[in-house]
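re: the backbone from monday

yeah here it is again, tokenized this time
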């Protein structure tokens, strides 16, 4: 583990899952053991919603001295790959959690699951059914009326066993037969109406290749995986609540020494974001973003590249809490956690994103000044900056004809420049054709002169500063629920201004930044050196967050 996460301040709000686990441990259930698991399907990268589940699964295990397994829930051959397996591991480690030796693949249990299915057949608790999928649906019926039994339901177990073995051997075409549990065709819960346990599917699997043409269904596989591993508390999202009776049925048929129990909590829905892996994949494949780790993506690797610190994501997951109610979480809360963490740790630097030249006509020689690295952290010290005759300031910090209450630089007026005294604008050189401001000529006063001014602006020396590419990221979508309306393509809500690149001038020390290092560019926002593209010779910074919530009205 890169950093312990369970030594955060005490007094975290409790929630019903922690309460259940606490009560179980106190009652000595399962020998007082707590074993959880995080079971991603390796068909995409982890996103902030998964982070909620990761923090809960690993967090509960840490808190109660138990363990959390990382299990690839890879029972569905299509769309799974090793690329995703490796990315999932890297992202969980980055978030600050470790599964130790407890890394598993569900596919490694295929043989064991198959043997258990044969045992169910022999017990008369499962049968091979030859109904077409249309007939299957028709027989299953609706919750308010009992379903109709399949004509194959009372097939002799030996005949079912023979057919099941031949299904495995590849004798029958895809979809022609399936294995079903024999439970209750009259149950108001459709999941108990003789659910499918195995289907025939000729699809190579990224781990088992073409060993199998028979794959277990999630509802059969998941409880078995939990039981095989001795999981005590199987935590999942609310959509699985109606599957729980089936989960319990499968477990009771297996009768394992440790009986896993399933608990459901509401998934995280985040405003201005889509979270479906299918939709995120679509953005990647259609090149709407640069990849899964595009800094605008809600993926963990995207947030990492954007500069979100892992502790901010853990704090966010802690603050949103665990409930049984679906809701839409405000993106501002996540951004607040990010700013909060960065405010404490990020070094302060000066960078001018849209530069205009200032010439100090009365500065005879360069002048060294001291600049504080982080007012929130005394140990961060200070650095030397050099005030030179030519400076860059932000175009926005100068106005020829200012509106009322504009306290930055204007003709004939003065402003404070960070750490280095005052400038008074004497005259301006404009482009003959466009009228654009080319040079702002100023006189300089040292800090001791204490001119009466209301504004302070930042600056970068034109001779010492270095050029840098700065990517100004913003929300990927312009509406709070981009996939809220099924009739409208979620991509029509993409924010065309979510990635704007500017050529900035930055203070020299920023060229030495380590990839992923975080900074506050004073007055501008939080930035990080890009994990992949930043070099000392060609600095590249990503905007992590603005200094305040620009979207708040
Ligand atoms: P799919 O749409 O492919 O089923 P999924 O998002 O459910 O995707 P899984 O890989 O099955 O992805 O998820 C792994 C675990 O993460 C599951 O236990 C799931 O309940 C949990 N999880 C997924 N999305 C969220 C979310 N938005 N909030 C909280 N937990 C989530
Ligand atoms: Mg899922």
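seq for it, each position gets an aa:
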């Amino acid at each position: 583990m890169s950093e312990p996460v369970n030594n955060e301040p005490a007094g975290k709000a409790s929630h019903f899952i922690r309460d259940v686990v606490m009560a179980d441990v106190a009652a000595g259930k399962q020998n007082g053991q707590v074993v959880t698991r995080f079971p991603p399907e390796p068909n995409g990268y982890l996103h902030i919603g998964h982070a909620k589940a990761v923090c809960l699964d690993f967090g509960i295990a840490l808190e109660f001295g138990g363990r959390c397994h990382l299990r690839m829930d890879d029972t569905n051959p299509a769309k799974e790959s090793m690329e995703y397996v490796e990315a999932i591991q890297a992202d969980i480690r980055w978030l600050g959690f470790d599964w130790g030796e407890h890394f598993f693949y569900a596919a490694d249990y295929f043989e064991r699951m198959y043997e258990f299915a044969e045992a169910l057949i022999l017990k008369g608790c499962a049968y091979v059914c030859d109904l077409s999928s249309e007939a299957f649906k028709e027989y299953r019926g609706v919750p308010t009326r009992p379903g109709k039994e399949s004509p194959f339901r009372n097939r002799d177990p030996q005949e079912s066993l023979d057919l099941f073995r031949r299904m495995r051997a590849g004798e029958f075409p895809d979809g022609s037969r399936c294995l079903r549990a024999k439970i209750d065709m009259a149950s108001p819960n459709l999941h108990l109406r003789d659910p499918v346990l195995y289907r025939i599917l000729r699809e190579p699997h990224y781990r088992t290749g073409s060993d199998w043409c028979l794959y277990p269904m999630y509802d059969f596989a998941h409880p078995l995986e939990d039981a095989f591993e001795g999981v005590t508390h199987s935590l999942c999202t609310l959509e699985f609540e109606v599957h729980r009776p089936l989960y319990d049925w499968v477990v009771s048929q297996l009768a394992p020494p440790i009986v896993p129990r399933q608990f459901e909590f509401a998934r995280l829905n985040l405003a201005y974001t889509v979270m479906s892996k299918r939709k995120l994949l679509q953005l990647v494949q259609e090149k709407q973003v640069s990849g899964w780790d595009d800094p605008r993506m809600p993926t963990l690797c995207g947030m990492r590249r954007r500069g979100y610190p892992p502790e901010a994501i853990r704090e966010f997951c802690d603050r949103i809490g665990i409930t049984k109610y679906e809701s839409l979480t405000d993106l501002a809360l996540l951004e607040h956690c990010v700013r909060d963490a960065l405010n404490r740790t990020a070094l302060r630097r000066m960078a001018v994103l849209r530069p205009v030249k200032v010439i100090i006509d009365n500065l005879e020689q360069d002048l060294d000044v001291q600049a504080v690295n982080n007012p929130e952290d005394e140990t961060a010290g200070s650095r030397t900056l050099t005030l030179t005759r030519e400076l860059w300031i932000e175009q926005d910090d100068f106005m020829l004809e200012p509106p009322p209450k504009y306290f930055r630089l204007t003709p004939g007026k003065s402003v404070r420049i960070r750490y280095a005294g005052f400038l008074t604008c004497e005259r301006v050189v404009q482009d003959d054709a466009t009228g654009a401001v080319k040079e702002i000529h100023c006189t300089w006063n040292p800090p001791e002169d204490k001119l009466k001014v209301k504004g302070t602006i930042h600056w970068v020396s034109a001779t010492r500063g270095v050029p840098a590419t700065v990517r100004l990221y913003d929300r990927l979508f312009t509406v709070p629920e981009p996939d809220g309306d099924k009739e409208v393509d979620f991509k029509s809500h993409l924010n065309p201004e979510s990635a704007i690149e500017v050529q900035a001038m930055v203070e020299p020390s920023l060229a030495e930044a380590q990839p992923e290092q975080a900074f506050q560019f004073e007055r501008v926002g939080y930035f990080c050196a890009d994990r992949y593209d930043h070099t000392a010779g060609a600095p590249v910074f990503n905007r992590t967050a603005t200094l305040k919530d620009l979207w708040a009205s």
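The chain has three domains: 16-265, 270-347+468-546, 351-458. The two ends are 40 Å apart (CA to CA).
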